[in-house]
Design goal:
single chain, 83 residues, alpha+beta, 2 helices, 5 strands, 23% strand, Phage head morphogenesis protein
């Protein structure tokens, strides 16, 4: 499951960037017994798909770290609440 989350994150990011989507909103999964507090705090925050979210001193994508089940919501220009 862990490697599948990483692969899904990479493919999803590439597809969205190819469509002109440049930002996402971090979505914490609220799964697991011991959630990373930094991921909980990132929930709902905007980040750049080309960099990832700055968490614990490094830029990461949701689902990238071992056992991370976080994901993101694409910010679609002209259609998203952030516009």
């Amino acid at each position: 499951r862990d490697q599948n989350n990483k692969a899904t994150s990479v493919v999803q990011s590439a597809r969205q960037k190819a469509l002109g989507i440049t930002q996402g909103i971090w979505k914490h999964s609220h799964a697991g017994k011991k959630p990373r507090q930094s991921h909980v705090k990132a929930n709902g925050k905007l980040f750049d798909l080309s960099k990832g979210m700055l968490i614990d001193g490094e830029h990461i994508m949701p689902g990238e770290l071992p056992n991370c089940r976080c994901t993101w919501e694409a910010v679609i220009p002209g259609l998203s609440k952030q516009d």
